[in-house]
Specification:
Strand content: under 5%
Length: 188
């Protein structure tokens, strides 16, 4: 319901903008940092559990991290590898969010819905291409000369262990939600 305040502003619109779920009867708990962090982690976990491409990007990032730990990379090279890996996964998270929002907005096939989904997927493709180019530029010369870092084997084992632990976590999340269709991002 829209009412006018003493200063002539529409109170219903302001309230809807401040609390968008209130109009639908959904009451949110206060969004402090711990809740925001928990929601963000749940979003990453859900995307890993439901989106095949996110798991592929995660595996590629894990391989890049193992290679970075093994090879004699300097700090800037490590940061570049980590940065493009994170950018690709962040783009996949945004792509998943856009696809879910489009699916929520319409159940019909529509050219604008297709355009939105294709553009979001294209953004992931562009960043994935950049990550391949950065990886080739950084890892290629090192692999050709096989310059191993002192103590690199121990670092690579530790990074591989973290990657395996993450893969197990994703597998357990997938097993916990057998009712989700492949590719769905249903909220439990």
């Amino acid at each position: 319901m829209i009412t006018r305040s003493d200063d002539g502003r529409d109170r219903g619109i302001e309230e809807a903008l401040e609390r968008p779920n209130a109009a639908r009867g959904i009451v949110d708990e206060p969004a402090g940092f711990p809740r925001s962090l928990r929601d963000a982690i749940r979003g990453v976990e859900r995307t890993f559990a439901t989106q095949r491409n996110m798991r592929i990007h995660g595996a590629a990032a894990s391989l890049a991290a193992v290679a970075a730990a093994l090879l004699d990379l300097d700090l800037l090279e490590i940061l570049l590898v980590a940065g493009v890996s994170a950018a690709v996964m962040a783009a996949e998270l945004v792509n998943t969010a856009i696809e879910a929002a489009v699916d929520l907005a319409t159940l019909e096939r529509h050219p604008l819905a297709r355009a939105a989904k294709d553009a979001a997927a294209g953004a992931v493709l562009v960043l994935a291409g950049l990550s391949v180019a950065v990886g080739a530029a950084i890892f290629g010369p090192k692999l050709l000369r096989l310059q191993l870092r002192a103590g690199g084997l121990e670092w690579a084992a530790a990074v591989a262990g973290v990657a395996v632990a993450g893969a197990i976590r994703v597998a357990l999340l997938r097993r916990r939600r057998p009712s989700d269709a492949p590719g769905s991002i249903a909220v439990p």
